[in-house]
Structures are given as C-alpha cells and as structure tokens.
Design brief:
The complex is a heterodimer of chains A (324) and B (368). Chain A has 324 residues and is mainly alpha-helical. Chain A has 13 helices and two strands, in the order ααααααααααααββα. Chain A has a two-stranded antiparallel sheet. Chain A starts with a helix and ends in a 21-residue tail after the last helix. By secondary structure, chain B is mainly α. In chain B, 74% of the residues lie in helices and 0% in strands. Chain B has 16 helices and no strands. Chain B is globular, with a radius of gyration of 21 Å. The chains are: A mainly alpha (324), B mainly alpha (368). Chains A and B meet through helix 3, helix 4, helix 11 and helix 13 of A and helix 1, helix 5, helix 6, helix 13 and helix 15 of B.
C-alpha cells in the first residue's frame, strides 16, 4: 500500500515537472515545424519567469503576471524573427544571443527593482501565485487509495496552467494536422519555395510561428516562477528550455510523441530526487547525475540514429531568400 | 555567410565590429539609465576597474586569456562551417584532464607536469568534442544540438566525479584537493619578479603565453597550411570541397578536434594558473563568451585577441562596477555579451548592408 502511494506521488510529481517541458516543447514544435531552429526556448522562458514574477509581486495578481510573461516571451520571439526572418540572420546565433542576454538582463533588473540580490520578492500574498485547484470530493477521496488517491493527486489539485498544458497537446495536434494554418506551417518547414510559389508569405508564416512559440514559452516561464515556485531566482529555468528541445527531437517533432518524451524526462527527473542513495534491484545505486544526464544521452543516441531515427523539418535553420 | 553586402577589409574587420559594439553598449546604456544610474559614470567606473591599477590589469588579462582559448575554439570550427556551441563542456572536461595530471603528478618537476597538463587539457577537450564531431560526420546528427547536449552531460559527469570521486576527503564542498607544487603555472607577477620587475599579484599567469602561441598557430594553420585551406573551402562551399577531393568527414573531425583542444586549454589558465584544484563549474560561461569573441573578432586570431581583451575588461570592470554601484551587478556584462552576439552575429546585416551601400556610393571602392 505504501509503495502504491509512493508511485502515485511520483506520478503527480512527474506531471508537475513535465508541465513547463510540455509547454516549451510545443512552443518549439511550432517554430521548428516552420523551419526555424528554436534554441531560444531557454531565454524566452527565463524572461517570462522574471516578468511574470516581477509583475505578480508588484500588482499582486498572478494573472497580470501571466500577461507580462506572455508579453515578454512574445517580444523576444519578435526579436528572433526580426533577426532571422527579416534580416536572414543565423538562427542559432540569434537564439544564443537571446539566451545570454536574458540570463544577464533578468537578474540585473531584478536587483535594480527589488534590491534582493537578483531575485524577485517572495510571492506569498493571496492571488499572487497559481495554486492547485482541488476538484470536488478530492479530500474525501484520498481515503480510498486506488481510485481515490489517484483522483486526488493525479487529476485534481493541479493549477490551471497544468490543465492548459494538457489541453494544448491535442489542440496543437489539431492545429498542425487539421487546419489550413497547420498545413502551411508544415509545408514552410519542409519546402518554403513551394509555399512561396503558392502565393503564401514565408516570412509571415515564420513570424506567426515564432510568436506562438514566444507566447507558449511565456506560459511555461510563468509556470516556473509563479506556480512551481514563489518568485524568480537567477537562472531558474536551469536548462529546461534545452531539455524541452531534446524532448521535441525525441518526439520527432510530433505533438503526442513529444508529450511522451516530456513525461519520460520528467519522470526521470522526479524519480532522481527520490532515488538518491536508494539501491534498485539489478543495477544497485544509480548516481543521481546519471539520471539527470539521461535525457541528454538518450537524445544524442536518437540523433545518432542508434535508437530510432529523428528527421528534422527539411528546411530547418536556413533563412529563406526569395530571389534565389 | 551569404550576406548581400560585401565590405572592404578595413570596414569588415574594424568599422563593422565597432558599430556593432556601439549598438550593444548603447542598449546596455539604456538599461542602466532605466535602472536609474548614469551610463557614462558606469562606463568610466568599468574602464577604471579594468585598467585602473596593476592588479586590475592582471585580472583583465587573466580573463582575456580564457576568452582567447574559447574564442579560437569557436572560430576554428566556424571556418569549417561547423558551429561548436560545446566549448563550455569541452573546457570543463579539458579541466578534468589538467586536474587529473595535477593530482597524479603534482609532485614532479613543473618542467614535466606543466606540458603534460597542457597536453591533457587538449586531449580531454578534443575527446569531448570528438563524439559530436563523429556523429555529425558519420551519422549526420545536428552538431549544434549534440554539442549542447554534451555540455549538460559534461556538467552532470563533473558533478558526479567531484561529489563522489575527486572530492577532498572530509570536506563538504565538492572540490578536489590542491594540486602538488609541480602542477602550478607560474604567475606573471612571479615571473616578472624574477627578472626584477615588480608587478601587483593577480591570477594572470603564463598560460597567457600559451594563448598567444595558440593565436599564432591557429593563424598559421588556417591560412598557411593545406589542412587549413581544406577547412576553409569546406566551410565556404561543401559541394566544391567534395569535388576538390576534400573529405567532409575528415574536415569536420579535424576542425572539431582542434576546437575542442583549444577550449580544453581554458583549464590550463583557470586550474593550473589560478585555482590549483578542480572546482564545480569553473568555466563559468567562458565557453559561451567564446561565441561573442569569435563573432566580434571575425574569426581571425588578431580580432579574437582584441575582442578577448575587450571582454576581459568587461568582466573585470563589471565586477568592479558591482562594488561601486549598488544597483548594478555583474550580470550587466552578461547582457552586453548577449547584445554583442546579437548585433555581431544575428543582426549584422542591419549595419552591413547600409554600410556597404554607403561605401559603394562614396567612391565605388565598396568592392574588393
């Protein structure tokens, strides 16, 4: 019974860890499917984490914080699109620039505005954070382990962003595979010339994809600073943007497999915290660092074609030059 | 880069990077103004902090040495058309090589241990670059992604080693024990002191000579050898290189091995030159500064030297600035670094295209 409880709690932790990964990976899905490498997930998320925590601290409203986070993510996405689409800059360089800029700017502004050594104030007032929503009867249901605890921990008790992320996966799949916009988006990532020949603007599509990515990164960043924790601290995204990118690659640029990869990576992460020093059957004590590195190792193996094959959108990384 | 604007060399190597730097500084100045401090005062404080005293010059040059290594690492790969973002991880693992030599042979004579440490730094850094390079060359795995992944794997590996294996017994913080006396790169103030010139103590050490030598060697390699020529042809036009009988696989491997080896040398400066033990996360982002340095220095060793000095001054001046202005911290320098990458790299056409048009109109000398 205790083991079952442990498993349920582990799965609940997995959901919490997976949420920002899912949001960021879907953000990357849209921009990468349009033919733009999205290494900037990390920076956009970090900027949103700072903006949302700062605004939530200043106004006392988590929702205004969310708005600020989304605005910050979208603004940076516009910078990237301006550099890479309008000026045909190198996408990798633009993204690295954004990531490094934000890593400097966010703590610099935090220090200047809040004077707490590069953090934002603790968000502990009412309404400053996105807290878990308890579903009906979830407290009462806890007493019955199998359906009850699972219901209370896995379905109920999460904050609104978690449910948003869960709904976003089928929504993204629908947009990508069932709408005109999605068809064009996939086409522009594979063969921009064909899209251009059909009289559709490659640049406009890539701008749209980039903004979607920025908005979703904004939600992800807001989750990190105002839902998963109570305020912004330096470098708090801690590589989650790159991990989400790895999940996107691991999911072969498709929504549901990407969700699966996010859950797998999150499960490894949630498990790593619990497995510290615990001896497992067969393998013995697994170093925590190995589990932390596991998603990256798996992604490299996948990219190498040793486990399955990952085929990126064909036109990814190349700026589109109309008159070529 | 297939930029439409071609510039004469003086503008490409001098004016354009300067304009880009000015744009980056301008925006940083706006941020400082937004914070409520004077940008001009901040700039003066930074300049004083970087060059105002002998020891601050020492620190500036010490940081610059780091950035020469990582900047050259990025540049060599870029000449082959390969973007190595893994400098941070390669430097970290290179430092492991230095550290293992320092811990194992620290009691031997420095005349043996220091060269051994340098060799280990190169070998370990190159080895860490080898896997992504091989995967790109043989299996077509996107090297940008794999090198990023290898940064994280390096970080996890080093944390594991420092926490579980290399940690000095009976100590809380994950650091190795100190290297023996043989594994110490003499510092510049000691070396100058021996020949009778007094210089204030700082971590500035003789690894800087290694950095200068690396600049020269990279220049010779890229522009004066057959291999360097193959590298540049492949970087400019892989198709043409293939027809010229240049092996893409070998070119990628060679460029990445050199790149990784150069990045690994950061460990010589940081660990043998200054810390004398292995620390958690000692590269501290220098691998990423290398991207900014290489972009600003136009992938040329002379440019990289100048850009490294600039970033060395920014890092040293920035930490000084944090003392003098309570509302500004060293993160401002990271912002400037990001802006330099943005303007020199992704947004360079903003200045390049109008500049080329302007120079062309000014006398028809826009084409070289």
């Amino acid at each position: 019974m205790e083991a079952f409880r442990e498993i349920i709690l582990l799965l609940a932790a997995t959901i919490r860890v997976a949420t920002p990964l899912v949001l960021a990976a879907l953000a990357g899905l849209f921009s990468e499917r349009s033919g733009m490498i999205d290494l900037g997930l990390e920076g956009k998320m970090l900027a949103a984490a700072f903006a949302s925590a700062a605004v939530a601290a200043a106004t006392g409203s988590a929702w205004l914080g969310l708005g600020a986070g989304v605005a910050a993510g979208a603004a940076l996405a516009l910078v990237i699109a301006f550099a890479c689409v309008t000026h045909r800059g190198n996408q990798v360089v633009a993204a690295m620039a954004i990531n490094i800029m934000v890593a400097g700017l966010a703590p610099a502004l935090a220090l200047a505005w809040f004077n707490q050594g590069g953090q934002t104030p603790q968000l502990d007032g009412p309404g400053q954070r996105f807290l878990g929503l308890a579903w009906p009867w979830s407290q009462a249901a806890r007493r019955h382990p199998l359906p009850g605890l699972a219901y209370a921990e896995l379905l109920s008790g999460h904050n609104v962003i978690v449910y948003f992320a869960a709904a976003l996966v089928p929504a993204s799949a629908w947009v990508l595979y069932r709408t005109r916009f999605g068809l064009r988006l996939r086409a522009v990532g594979e063969n921009p010339l064909a899209v251009d020949t059909a009289g559709i603007s490659v640049g406009a599509l890539r701008y749209q994809a980039s903004i979607i990515s920025g908005v979703l990164c904004g939600v992800a960043g807001t989750y990190i600073s105002t839902a998963a924790s109570a305020g912004f601290v330096r470098d708090m995204t801690a590589g989650k943007g790159y991990l989400a990118l790895a999940a996107l690659i691991f999911g072969k640029w498709r929504p549901y497999p990407t969700l699966g990869a996010c859950l797998l990576f999150a499960f490894a992460d949630a498990g790593a915290a619990r497995l510290q020093g615990v001896a497992l059957p067969v393998v013995g004590v697994v170093p925590v660092q190995f589990i932390i590195a596991l998603p990256y190792i798996l992604t490299v193996l996948l990219l190498a074609g040793f486990v399955g094959e990952a085929i990126a959108p064909k036109a990814i990384g190349a700026p589109y030059i109309k008159e070529k | 880069m297939s930029a439409p604007g071609r510039l004469p060399r003086w503008a490409d190597y001098g004016l354009l990077p300067l304009l880009n730097l000015c744009a980056a500084l301008l925006i940083s100045g706006l941020v400082i103004r937004l914070i409520g401090e004077s940008p001009w005062a901040a700039l003066k404080l930074m300049a004083a902090g970087a060059f105002g005293a002998q020891d601050s010059v020492g620190y500036t040059l010490f940081y610059a040495t780091d950035f020469v290594f990582t900047g050259l690492a990025v540049a060599v790969a870029v000449h082959a058309g390969v973007f190595n973002i893994g400098g941070e991880g390669q430097a970290y693992i290179g430092g492991l090589g230095v550290g293992l030599v320092g811990l194992a042979f620290g009691s031997w004579s420095p005349w043996i241990v220091v060269p051994l440490g340098i060799a280990a730094a190169c070998a370990f850094g190159a080895a860490w670059a080898f896997v992504p390079a091989w995967l790109q060359a043989r299996r077509g795995s996107h090297i940008v992604i794999t090198t990023i992944m290898f940064n994280f794997i390096a970080s996890a590996l080093m944390t594991y080693l420092l926490v579980n294996v290399l940690i000095k017994p009976g100590q809380q913080s994950p650091e190795s024990r100190e290297f023996g006396p043989g594994a110490v790169m003499p510092s510049v103030h000691q070396a100058l002191g021996m020949i009778g010139i007094p210089f204030a103590p700082s971590p500035f050490n003789l690894a800087s000579l290694l950095a200068l030598a690396a600049c020269l060697l990279v220049w010779v390699f890229i522009w004066r050898t057959r291999w360097g020529y193959a590298l540049r042809v492949f970087g400019q036009n892989p198709q043409a290189a293939l027809y010229a009988g240049i092996s893409p696989q070998r070119t990628i491997l060679v460029s990445m091995l050199i790149s990784g080896g150069l990045a690994g040398c950061l460990g010589v400066n940081e660990l043998m030159g200054s810390e004398h033990r292995i620390l958690l996360d000692f590269p501290g982002g220098a691998g990423f500064v290398g991207i900014a340095v290489a972009l600003m220095g136009r992938n040329h060793p002379a440019g990289i030297l100048a850009a490294s000095l600039l970033f060395g001054a920014l890092y040293q001046g920035g930490s000084q600035l944090a003392f003098d202005m309570p509302h500004v911290n060293r993160d401002m320098v990271v912002l400037i670094q990001g802006l330099v990458i943005l303007f020199c790299g992704a947004l360079e056409n903003i200045f390049r295209v109008p500049l080329a048009a302007l120079l062309c109109r000014a006398g028809g000398s826009g084409r070289t």
